[in-house]
Amino acid sequence: MSGRSVLITGGNRGIGRAIAEEFLAAGDKVAVTTRTGEAPEGALGVAADVTDAASVGAAFTRVEEAHGPVEVLVANAGITRDTLLLRMSEEDFTDVLDTNLTGAFRVLKRASKGMLRLKRGRVVLISSVVGLYGSPGQINYAASKSGLVGMARSLTRELGGRGITANVVAPGFVRSDMTDALDESTQAKYLDSIPAGRFAETEEVARVVRWISSEEAAYISGAVIPVDGGLGMGH
Ligand code: NDP
């Protein structure tokens, strides 16, 4: 299965960029949202901020004009604002929820229209091991990431009979700008607790996202697929 219209949010860098490259290599028509930066070569870059429904709507219109209705949606855009609960401001909490969870809702709602008309679609929500494992200093982030599980499972129940699957991919510690920003002692602590004894590369997440979006995975929906070197023990 190739040549599908694929849209990935936050595809200019990190895991999103690797996912875009993976679908490009499989021969799909790939578009990525770029709030800043550039799309990878071969992908269509569309400016969008997932916290702004109007910019999401405009981005979808551009993608539909260029590639047709979105058949594979990967909600990847995400941020962290880590701090302990007592220091966490309401803004730290709502900003993270607005990007990671409501942002996914905005793109999902827009994508579902085209998928319903096509009577097929693949939705992949990029969560985190932290969503089900918990993490001190990440109450906002963990809440946003576990919320994606309820979103995928509800979507599965709502649209599963229309040829649409919705799954969550939950990476562990992946080398990217997000994790490079953590201090060395935090990185060492994570490394100690990962059975695989190493961090993941972005491509290892990307390959799983492509597979869960493939025909081979047509009967998998509402699942949480860990890509975490055993850290969450499958949750
Ligand atoms: P990066 O910080 O490297 O990249 C984040 C991406 O999200 C960037 O493209 C960024 O765009 C985009 N983004 C952030 N806010 C918005 C917004 N409001 N609108 C549109 N795009 C936005 O992170 P990663 O690649 O590491 O993470 C990607 C996803 O994977 C995230 O959801 C993250 O939570 C998740 N994840 C990451 C893990 C890791 O270890 N790295 C582990 C588990 C999950 P811009 O460049 O403009 O800022």
From TrEMBL:
Gene3D superfamilies: NAD(P)-binding Rossmann-like Domain. Its EC number is 1.1.1.100. GO terms for molecular function: 3-oxoacyl-[acyl-carrier-protein] reductase (NADPH) activity. InterPro entries: KR_dom (IPR057326), NAD(P)-bd_dom_sf (IPR036291), SDR_fam (IPR002347). It holds the Pfam family adh_short_C2. Residues 4-177 form the Ketoreductase domain. It is an enzyme of class 1 (oxidoreductase). Keywords: Oxidoreductase. The keyword Oxidoreductase applies. SMART domains: PKS_KR. PANTHER family: 3-OXOACYL-[ACYL-CARRIER-PROTEIN] REDUCTASE, CHLOROPLASTIC, SHORT-CHAIN DEHYDROGENASES/REDUCTASES FAMILY MEMBER. Belongs to the short-chain dehydrogenases/reductases (SDR) family. NCBIfam families: PRK12826.1-2. This is 3-oxoacyl-ACP reductase FabG. The gene is fabG.
